[in-house]
Amino acid sequence: MVSGTTALIPVVMGIGTEQLIIEYLTHLDTPAVKVAEATGEFTDIDCKVIPGKVIIQGILHQQTYLVNQEGVVFHAADNASFSKFIEVENASPQMSCRVIPEIEDICANLLNECTLEQRVVVSIKAILIKEQEVPFSPHFRMQASN
């Protein structure tokens, strides 16, 4: 029997997914008559694993392009903080996490010419990872399959 060694391998220990709705109002300095486009991206995503759950926090940076009364397109930007608990069976603080946020839908509506109502539907996936020692032989070789 050949004596081997061990390697630390990241192993997925659990996955949890939740949805949330981020809603907020924005005051516009320039009056608008319609929304042309709204986009968003995530920044400063952080996660903390506690027993049975993952705490996710981050910022949604949203950019909205609007049209004024003269037909000129202008831009408004917002940052909305959010947080969410995601239950993941067997989660423990010894695990690390990876967060995959996804914008499922953005709805931006003018309530009046200077007030923009925004709703963003977000799906957040938390993947829990723990490094485990796995035995491995220095004589192990991968063979290409045909």
Please list the strands of the largest sheet in the order they lie side by side: 1-6-5
The averaged pLDDT comes out at 91
The number of distinct structural domains comes to: 1
Instruction: Give the DSSP E fraction (strand runs of 2 or more residues).
Output: over 45%
Gyration radius (Cα, Å) is 23 Å
Distance between the termini: 30 Å
Describe the structure.
The protein has a three-stranded antiparallel β-sheet with strand order 1-6-5, with no helix packed on it. A three-stranded antiparallel β-sheet has the order 2-3-4, with no helix packed on it. The protein is elongated. 0% of the residues lie in helices and 75% in strands. It is mainly beta and 146 residues long. The model has no long low-confidence stretch (mean pLDDT 91). The two termini are 30 Å apart. A hairpin with a 2-residue loop joins strand 5 and strand 6. It has one domain.
What layout of secondary structure does this protein have?
Blueprint: E1 5-27, E2 34-50, E3 53-67, E4 73-87, E5 96-112, E6 115-136
Antiparallel strand pairs: 1-6, 2-3, 3-4, 5-6
